[in-house]
From TrEMBL:
One GO CC annotation: cytosol
Domain Carbohydrate kinase PfkB: 21-281
InterPro entries, per the entry: PfkB_dom, Ribokinase-like
A Pfam entry, by short name: PfkB
Keyword vocabulary terms for this entry: Kinase, Transferase
One MF annotation (Gene Ontology) recorded for this entry: phosphomethylpyrimidine kinase activity
UniProt protein name: Bifunctional hydroxymethylpyrimidine kinase/phosphomethylpyrimidine kinase
């Protein structure tokens, strides 16, 4: 079985949307990526850090999804990374209210020995120096390295972020962040500039408006499935990244054509994530439900015009 190595935050989140409010619940980029990638036939491991305030039941949840958590360090007396966000009425934009790095501030990641030859590496959102350090520890060049990041790191660690971006094959970011990183308003120009920074493939996530994949002069677009119920978009981007990297790891095919399928898998899984608060929907989601919605995705985008 192919191996997917996941790096990112394992966290506490407090979320407020027009539909309700949660106290500190399970969150974090690596958590969402891991839950999403668990729908594929592969071995996966998370490298992250938490404090000893982090409940064992959250770690048990990850283990129950066959995710290797030996790379999640638990710092005695430390506090887990905490993020709080407030969504606006359109649910497409949000304000970050609090980001407490806590144990993440001094984190030195350790890649488990049996994942130093991972086939695919998914560098989830966290400090770019941690992302680089994970790449430094690998003993074999992975078939694909995917990086996700956000404006927080562009604001506070841009040179380090530019260094790690040089080393990856695929970057996934949202439209606002692509504009901030490139200084271009047009997403076509932004993607071209970002390709010049290193990644040959640029995925731009546009929330409920779908996702774009750019490679050289080629571009592919996947819509987001129109949903009846959207409660909480938190983690949708990470769930997308988990579906994308999980599918690539399972299929071992890194062609542009297969990446299109990976974008569809990522969008499909993300469509479930937003239906309930936090990780709730992903925890109970079944493979059968994923397959049914994949068919809906196909119908949504298929047409028969002869050209
Ligand atoms: P998303 O909605 O896909 O952008 O991801 C939301 C998740 O990212 C939440 O569960 C947060 O815990 C996590 N998160 C928020 N800010 C950061 C940050 N600066 N670095 C890493 N993870 C973060």
């Amino acid at each position: 079985m192919n191996k997917l190595l996941i790096v990112g935050t394992v966290a506490f989140d407090a979320i407020e949307t027009p539909f309700g409010k949660t106290d500190k619940i399970l969150g974090g980029a690596a958590t969402y990526i891991g839950l999403s990638a668990s729908f594929f036939n592969l071995q996966s491991a998370i490298v992250s850090v938490v404090g000893d305030d982090f409940p064992q039941e959250h770690l048990d949840l990850l283990t129950s999804k066959n995710i290797d958590i030996s790379g999640i360090e638990i710092v005695k007396g430390g506090k887990t990374f905490f993020w709080s966000g407030l969504y606006h009425n359109d649910l497409n934009s949000r304000d970050t209210l609090v980001t407490e790095l806590n144990v993440l501030a001094d984190f030195q990641p350790k890649v488990p020995q049996n994942y130093k030859d991972a086939d695919v590496v998914m560098l989830g959102n966290l400090h770019p120096l941690v992302q680089s350090s994970v790449l430094d520890q690998l003993e074999k060049k992975p078939k694909l390295v995917v990086l996700d990041t956000m404006n927080f790191w562009m604001d506070c660690a841009l040179p380090e972020l530019l260094d790690v971006i040089k080393r990856v094959d695929v970057i996934t970011i949202n439209d606002e962040e692509a504009r901030q990183l490139s200084g271009e308003y047009s997403l076509v120009k932004a993607a071209a500039k970002i390709q010049d920074m290193g990644p040959k493939y640029v995925v731009i996530k546009k929330g409920e408006h779908g996702a774009l994949l750019f490679h050289n002069r080629e571009v592919f677009f996947a819509p987001a499935l129109p949903l009846e119920d959207v409660f909480d978009p938190t983690g949708a981007g990470d769930t997308f990244a988990g579906g994308f990297s999980g599918f690539i790891a399972q299929s071992e095919n890194i062609s542009f054509g297969n990446m299109k399928n990976a974008i569809i898998y990522g969008s499909n899984l993300a469509s479930f994530c937003v239906e309930k608060f936090g990780t709730e929907r992903m925890e109970t989601l079944s493979k059968a439900e994923v397959a049914i919605r994949l068919q809906q995705f196909k119908s949504l985008t298929q047409f028969d015009i002869e050209i």
